[in-house]
Amino acid sequence: MDIYHIWCTLKDGVGDLAFAGHVGKYLDHLKDQGHIAGWRLTRRKLGLGPDDLPEFHIMVEVTGLAQLDAAFGHVATRAEPVEGLHHCVNSLVSKVKFALYRDFPDPVRETGAERF
Q1: What is the overall mean pLDDT for the chain?
Q2: Which residues lie below 8 Å from residue 54, measured CB to CB, with a gap of 6+?
Q3: HSE (side-chain half, CA atoms, 13 Å) at 83
Q4: Can you give the pTM of this predicted structure?
Q5: Mutual orientation of helices 65-76 and 82-90 as an angle, nearest 10°?
Q6: How many domains, the chain?
Q7: Dihedrals φ, ψ of 2, to 5°?
Q8: What is the pLDDT of residues 22-73, one digit of tens each?
């Protein structure tokens, strides 16, 4: 499983529950269409976390880079309804950071090839 991480801060005046609702509609749409395997939205708690990471963290699970590429391709069409759903999330945030991680060790890892 690959996990696409998104960290963001809400723009001034944006409600946290409204944001969460829009994220849910958008990512549920991608999941229902088979473009992602799952997702999760988290929020920093008690102010704990690195200063350079924003308050909200979205994790999007995909079965591999091909599924992630297909998801990006679907969103890039800018066709409805995905365009409206994406815009509803994207227009609410600032200070966005992205990362891509994978489960480790992943299934393709061969044993005995360790380097020290």
Answers
A1: 94
A2: 7, 8, 9, 95, 96, 97
A3: 5
A4: 0.90
A5: 100
A6: 1
A7: -100, 145
A8: 999 999 999 999 999 999 999 999 989 998 999 999 999 999 999 999 999 9
